[in-house]
Amino acid sequence: MARDNLFNSKLYRGVRWIHAHAGLFFGPVALLFAVSTLILNHPQLFSGWMAREEVERVFEGIQVPDSEGLSLGRSIAQQLDLTGEIDWVGIQPDEKRVTVMISRPGWYTRITVKGNPGRAELVETRKGFLDRILYLHKRPGPHVANLRGNWWVVKLWGTVADSLILSVLSLSLTGILLWWRLKNERAMGLGATVAGFTSLTVLIWLLVGG
Amino acid sequence: MAASSNRTLFLIRKIHIHSGLFLLWLTWLFALSGVMLNHPKWEISKFWERRDVQTEVTPLEIPPIDAEKRVETVLKQLEIDGEPESIHWSDDSGAFTVSVVRPGTIVEVSVNAELTQAEVKRTQTDGAGIVHMLHTFNGVSVDEPARQRDWFWSTAWVAVMDMLAIALGVWVISGYYLWLKLGKMTPFGATVAGLGILLAGFFLFVTPYLP
């Protein structure tokens, strides 16, 4: 009886508070992931809205320091007054050429420097609002792990994405507790949980190949 | 009027609860794979380093056929099932290479011009690789909008991912609705909701223009 009272009062209110406020705070970020998932799954439906604009620029006298990787990319970007996430840095010594790719949501720049001091050719691609959503969905991402998160925005976004995952876990656990308290919904809820688990297991088994 | 409002509230609450429970496992799967994608340096995420690769050469018995049907016929004879992701024709002779993907397995098939021999390279990942690949497996590419899904099960998986995306939207919107209608709206809750909107707005509308 005492345990039931506790569940009905303090614990219940605490769980409900966490469930409501985690949902309220992370709702907009969760929506961003929901919309971007639909775009990623159906690019042909959204291709008309994926605007793309390219601008080419040239700069002379760019110094190429005797370094590599992130430090080299940062030095070149700094001379060109560019900030953003450095996605890739490549050196082609035979051709005395350095390529740096730098990005921010909806905006990508490819820098090619030839010679030292050299001529930098920039190709800037602006992709519009939908691409910003896709960019955020895919960052920090699994590729070029040693470079990822070198711009504070992407690093912060990575923390937001991790926090969203934690909030999803806390929302589902608190959601389970809140549902279990509703005795009238228990049977249907159990059915939904078992049906969800069974259908997902069967589908993954078929996808993986048994 | 009040009865109708109560019915709407009851229905929204029911949908919120039971769709959440039905998609609970799928949500956890995407949460786990999302963490793996965000942290490629973690040991669990390095599934590619643990992959198993096997290559074998298999004879083929295929009569002369049109170029369009070659890939399908070869894959059928080799009993390879999955989403064909890329096909490269090496020259006009008819030799080609095709990659067929399913979560946990990538098969690269190189076929000679005479259609008499296929080199089959099979890359198999562990469970972590399967989880990782399920997160991104959709058979299409934003960079190639004309590309289409060719495998029934990848279409089924995309339908499931779409369902989760739509459910996520429903949970968020119905959550706001329930919060407003159940009379639990407090200044603190409104502040939390506002901060959430500001956070998403900052990344979407401010970061592209940061100096």
Detailed description of the structure:
The complex is a heterodimer of chains A (210) and B (211). Helices cover 56% and strands 21% of the residues of chain A. Chain A is α+β, with helices and mostly antiparallel strands and 210 residues long. Chain A has six helices and five strands; from the N terminus they run ααβαββββααα. Chain B is α+β, with helices and mostly antiparallel strands and 211 residues long. Chain B has six helices and five strands, in the order ααβαββββααα. At the A-B interface, helix 1, helix 4, helix 5 and helix 6 of A face helix 1, helix 2, helix 4, helix 5 and helix 6 of B.
Question: Any key phrases for this structure?
Answer:
heterodimer, A: 210 residues, alpha+beta, 2 domains, five-stranded antiparallel β-sheet, 56% helix, B: 211 residues, 6 helices
Helix-and-strand structural type of chain A: alpha+beta
Report strand % of chain A: 15-25%
Secondary-structure element series of chain A? HHEHEEEEHHH
In total, the number of strands of chain B is: 5
Largest sheet of chain A, if any? 5 strands, antiparallel
Assembly annotation? heterodimer
